[in-house]
């Protein structure tokens, strides 16, 4: 079979000088193979359904023919496969080790080798990072650099070189597809794509963080058929399918071994990275869209900066004069990756909706008071991992537009009483837990996914936050955790009928009946995490209670128990269980 195909390839190569039309070449091959009724055709870089229709019309495929189509557009793949998912394969980018192997193979395979010094090796690794694991780009770069001495210039103007250098013409069609895709991209998805350039290269992004930000920005809204949350999850999945977002759990360890499967789908992917190649492309366009701008390094004081989304990079020198020259009138979000400066919260930010301070150093309780005072229209406030935040101010109740409040992994022990005034609040994440329990904020959304039961070790201690009385007033709340359990607090939770995700700590013999009352027959609850407590009588075992009056929540897809228990809940038998231990 191998000799036969080598002969065919040779015949095809002889035909090429006379045949410039690839369809004519395929027709010639097919006519030669009709009697033997076997033929393999690979059509690379198919860009539209119209192209496929013309090819099918021009060629006659026998029953033994196999046609492989390579395309960048998932809609084209679906069309060519007749919507058969089993006939489609989404090729993921190469991991770092495989990308380097491919680059070296291509580079060493080209004549006129240039001996690489340490600086060239460094530059090649930087460029490979920007290739995003795309084989076509890596091959083109390897061939080009084998004949070039100015590697640093290539690295500095990476996207410009790829688009305009005639020696890299083999990948120009990729940019044609990208430009066409962005031009015809649905209006609701385009801002979500440009939004990705906010996050630094190789920065792990929690799925829930991204979706909640999209909602606050108004990019994901409620529609007749879906809630904003569901639409945001769908947008995320579409970006995963386009390989713009990749699984952050898939990587390479110090030994060069690939870690993680990288097979998570959009709805299951708790952490993601932006594909480096797509990020480079987006960054090269973001100023055209006047979308995202950053303060990094040492910035010129004479430049007037404007845009919708401001990024404070870790490298920025913190010059207040530079900051004051920003045009704040259109600013909708501020994301800080460097240390906090008090002047970063300006009362000139009149339309600011998103303030993301996750992991920001130097932030204090006093700073939060000023933030609340100066930025009253916030819809998204994240203080996650800000270790020096101990107390939220009572003035928090002024943020009447607030939808998302994230104080997870801070020292906040209780929410202020005024939080119950936040009628639009949908999402509250709080409590201080070990990292092994905090890595995922995901919930299974598909009704076809079986319920997942996890039982954690005794050491999985969690400190939930105290919630104030009248938390029942927060009728739009759909995510709450981790809450410190009290009898009165649990009774109020029963009135929060929109809850879809709930985390509760301190469950024991004294309060477990109230928890069962909350969960029983709940119409929307999808995820429940319980941290069991110990009381003076010994190990608490709320799971041993009778289930005669218990109605399993129909939509529950994930149950996690942490702590001592000898028995599974009696009502678990009514659910389809998929047991996975916490690691």
From TrEMBL:
Domain Disease resistance R13L4/SHOC-2-like LRR: 331-431, 464-573
BP GO terms, sorted: defense response to other organism
Keywords: Plant defense, Repeat
Gene Ontology terms for molecular function: ADP binding
Domain of life: Eukaryota
Gene3D superfamilies: Helical domain of apoptotic protease-activating factors, P-loop containing nucleotide triphosphate hydrolases, Ribonuclease Inhibitor, Winged helix-like DNA-binding domain superfamily/Winged helix DNA-binding domain
Residues of the NB-ARC domain: 35-105
UniProt entry tagged with the keyword Oxidoreductase: no
Occurrences of domain Disease resistance protein winged helix (ranges): 198-246
PANTHER family: DISEASE RESISTANCE PROTEIN RP (PTHR23155), OS08G0246300 PROTEIN (PTHR23155:SF1135)
Protein name stated in the entry: NB-ARC domain-containing protein
Species this protein is from: Triticum turgidum subsp. durum (Durum wheat)
Origin organism lineage: Eukaryota, Viridiplantae, Streptophyta, Embryophyta, Tracheophyta
């Amino acid at each position: 079979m191998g000799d036969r195909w080598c002969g065919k390839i040779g015949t095809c190569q002889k035909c090429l000088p006379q045949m410039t039309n690839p369809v004519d070449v395929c027709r010639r091959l097919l006519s030669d193979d009709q009697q033997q009724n076997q033929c393999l055709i690979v059509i690379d870089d198919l860009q539209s359904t119209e192209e496929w229709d013309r090819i099918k019309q021009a060629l006659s495929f026998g029953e033994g023919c196999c046609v492989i189509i390579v395309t960048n557009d998932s809609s084209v793949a679906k069309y060519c496969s007749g919507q058969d998912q089993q006939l489609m394969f989404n090729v993921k980018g190469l991991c770092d080790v495989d990308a380097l192997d491919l680059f070296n193979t291509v580079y060493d395979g080209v004549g006129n080798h240039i001996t690489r010094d340490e600086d060239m090796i460094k530059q090649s690794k930087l460029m490979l990072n920007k290739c995003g694991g795309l084989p076509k780009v890596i091959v083109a770069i390897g061939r080009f650099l084998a004949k070039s001495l100015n590697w640093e210039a290539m690295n500095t103007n990476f996207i410009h070189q790829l688009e305009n250098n005639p020696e890299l013409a083999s990948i120009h069609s990729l940019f044609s597809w990208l430009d066409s895709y962005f031009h015809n991209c649905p209006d609701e998805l385009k801002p979500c794509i440009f939004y990705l350039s906010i996050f630094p290269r190789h920065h792990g992004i929690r799925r829930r963080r991204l979706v909640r930000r999209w909602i606050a920005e108004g990019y994901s809204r409620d529609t007749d058929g879906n809630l904003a949350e569901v639409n945001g999850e769908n947008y995320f999945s579409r970006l995963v399918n386009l390989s713009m977002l990749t699984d952050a759990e898939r990587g390479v360890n110090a030994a060069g071994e690939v870690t993680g499967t990288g097979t998570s789908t959009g709805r299951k992917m708790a952490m993601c990275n932006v594909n480096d190649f797509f990020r480079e492309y987006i960054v090269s366009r973001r100023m055209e869209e006047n979308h995202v701008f950053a303060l990094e390094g040492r910035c010129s004081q004479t430049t007037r900066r404007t845009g919708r989304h401001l990024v404070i990079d870790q490298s920025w020198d913190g010059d207040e004069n530079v900051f004051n020259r920003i045009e704040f009138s259109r600013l909708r979000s501020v994301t800080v990756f460097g240390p906090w400066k008090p002047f970063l919260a300006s009362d000139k930010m009149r339309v600011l909706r998103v303030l993301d301070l996750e992991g920001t150093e130097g932030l204090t309780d006093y700073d939060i008071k000023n933030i609340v005072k100066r930025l009253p229209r916030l819809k998204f406030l994240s203080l996650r991992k800000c270790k020096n935040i101990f107390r939220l101010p009572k003035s928090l109740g002024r943020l009447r537009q607030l939808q998302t409040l994230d104080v997870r992994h801070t020292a906040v022990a209780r929410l202020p009483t005024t939080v119950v005034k936040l009628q639009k609040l949908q999402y509250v994440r709080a409590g201080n837990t070990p990292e092994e329990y905090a890595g995922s904020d995901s919930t299974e959304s598909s009704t076809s996914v079986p319920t997942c039961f996890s039982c954690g070790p005794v050491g999985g201690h969690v400190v939930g936050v105290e919630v104030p009385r009248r938390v029942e007033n927060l009728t739009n709340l759909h995510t709450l955790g981790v809450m410190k359990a009290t009898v009165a607090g649990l009774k109020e939770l029963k009135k929060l009928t929109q809850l879809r995700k709930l985390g509760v700590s301190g469950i024991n013999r004294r309060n477990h009946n109230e928890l069962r009352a909350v969960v029983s027959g709940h119409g929307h609850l999808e995820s429940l995490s319980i941290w069991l407590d110990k009381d003076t009588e010994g190990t608490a075992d709320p799971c041993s209670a009778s289930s005669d009056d218990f109605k399993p929540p129909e939509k529950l897809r994930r149950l996690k128990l942490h702590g001592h228990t000898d028995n599974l809940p009696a009502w678990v038998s009514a659910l389809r269980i998929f047991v996975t231990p916490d690691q």
